Here is the input.
Amino acid sequence: MRTDTTDEFASSLAAADVACTRVEAAEFSAALDGVVDAPAVGVPLGIDGVSLDDTAVETPPTPRLLRDAETGVTRVHGIVDHGSFVIQADEAGAEPVSLYPRTHVGVVRASDLHADVEATAAWLHDEFDAGRDSAVLATGASATADMGELVHGVHGPQDVHAVVVTDR
Here is the structure.
């Protein structure tokens, strides 16, 4: 993935008040530990050379871990134009791990960044055809103003952080 794509993604994330850390796989564990508030829970990332094994993140998620976790860590895809995450449902529990803790850290390979909604929809079409037919699109922390003043974190994380693995 071209560097300017990760730069554009980081810029779009910043506009949504989401921090972004860029890292190569060899430095992933240290970088992740620098952005995670314990206790943390996560799901397997499925990225070659990148694992939660040597981090402060506990796996697999259990009801107790989800209830107590300050941070949830999942693999995501990214929509560059909007600084959005695409979180796919899986048997490991990516959706609750991304939604219940106060902070969500989305780990995305640079090669999993999609330019825009149209490119994301085309990719999701193939995913849905393959039976992976549930995904959540999220841009920044959850927020609602339907009952008055804008409130963050009512139905999802209050804080969001992206970790972009640049060499995968």
Q: What stands out?
A: The longest helix spans residues 3-15. The chain has one domain: 3-165.
